[in-house]
Amino acid sequence: MTKKERYEAIIEWFRHNMPIAETELNYENPFQLLMAVILSAQCTDKRVNQISPALFEAYPTPEVMAVSTPEAVLEYIKSVSYPNSKAQHLVATAQMLVKDFGGEVPSEMDDLLKLPGVGRKTANVMQSVVWGKATMAVDTHVFRVSHRLGLVPDSCNTPLKVELELVKHIADEDIPKAHHWLLLHGRYICQSRTPHCEKCGLQPWCKHFLGK
After folding, report:
1. Structural domains of the chain, ranges and CATH numbers in brackets
2. I need a labelling partner for 116 at 20 to 30 A (CA). Which of 4, 31, 35, 57 fits?
3. Is the pTM of this model over 0.85?
């Protein structure tokens, strides 16, 4: 099959079988989502959702967090991975939001990347989830599933290369949801150590399965 045929078939399968695909992080506004995404780096969404209610209650706005300290924030996030550095990033990000962006989370990539603790993946998540922009965040799940399915070649050996290849072949209107399609498929079906191929409806088009 051609690459175009593989993309079309896989996207159509996801459209039909996963019509609702969205972040599993709990949040009520862009600032809360930004905090949650920063905390989710190398940590499960489930763990972040466990600690975020108390964090959000203590720090409802960037202005409140900006006058706090990493030591105080650490008390709320001790159970996530790399809590010390994340506490520093959260406070520094809140301070920059207040100082440079009027207390609002910016929507442009260049501005998001200025925020401490925010890399390209986090910026893409924010743009996609909050503003519906055609940005593809590539985490470990998206990276793995894209390669296994055959959506990207082996030469796409960095998250950025995978991102650029995916957005080249997926329609803009599908890209925000496609991130969650691939991520959730990797989280629950196409897992790292033991992919559950027997449960996967993508077998007819999957490079990994067909090559077994």
Report:
1. 3-21+135-210 (1.10.1670.10), 30-118+126-131 (1.10.340.30)
2. 57
3. yes
